[in-house]
Amino acid sequence: MRVFDMHCDTLTVCKKKGWDLDNENCQLRLGDADGFDSYVQLYAVFIPDEVRGERAQSFFGAHHAYYRRQLEHLGPRLYDVPDLAALQKARDRCGMSSILAVEGGCVYGGELGMVEQVYNAGVRSVTLTWNGNNELAGGVMDDGRLTDFGKEAVHEMERLGIAVDVSHLNDESFYDVLAATEKPVFASHSNSRAVCSHPRNLTDDQFCRIAERGGVVGLNFYNQFIADGGEGATFDQMLAHLDHLLQLGGENVLALGSDYDGADIEEIIDRPRKLKNFYQALLDNGFGRELADKIFYWNAYGYFERLLAGEL
């Protein structure tokens, strides 16, 4: 069984607390990946809304230095995936493989040249906003729109090969980004708003627009995004999101975006080793092994394979 998870906040939590990335207090622990045939994880540097300009650039720099130290310290237990050859190796490698990401386009500090610097640092995905507005666009809890700088930044991201992540955008900025881009965008950790009405989730139209472009959408495990009321999420409630999005043509679109170490996640799935139980729930509910494997691994793998091959 293989897993490809498109979002966690473990790197930022561990850096803040002075822990290694395999700390036992984390939801995402390296040892939990050892039982899988392949486990690819996007590790995001989460930059809070209040950290802006040069402070945001320095914040990223400190976390990037920590990440590089962790790669050296943890050796073969954490395998960096900056390019296509590394991704192809990760496909057949047991243990944790990591793609570096950023949550918060404020990482650029409003400077277009920073897009290439972030790319050269190994980042292959940037979530354009968190909940508030920044120099690029409007977050889901604010009313901003894609700015002129935001348009330049997403064009540069497309040119270089940084995936444009539309999770956390407000609705207006979401459509602004679609209008300003040509290549497939993706939503690393967003669910269906038709199933759970939280504004962080995607409308049916938004999901279909991502699908039409050839993007992918990662199922978020956060209680608040799974069921209205936000308590006691069950596998059946998670499957309801998958069922609904499959009806919209999501067979080659759906993926995983756990949000480990960044959200309140129910005990049934709060550790990677428990993903096998969710996988079995898919099989028990008639999804079939081929579809379950697409959701758990191959849809996300295919998206990032095309990105790293320069085909996006």
TrEMBL record:
PROSITE patterns: RENAL_DIPEPTIDASE_2 (PS51365)
Pfam families the record matches: Peptidase_M19 (PF01244)
An annotated Gene Ontology molecular function: metallodipeptidase activity
GO BP annotations, alphabetical order: proteolysis
Protein name: Membrane dipeptidase
UniProt source species: Harryflintia acetispora
Lineage, top ranks: Bacteria, Bacillati, Bacillota, Clostridia, Eubacteriales
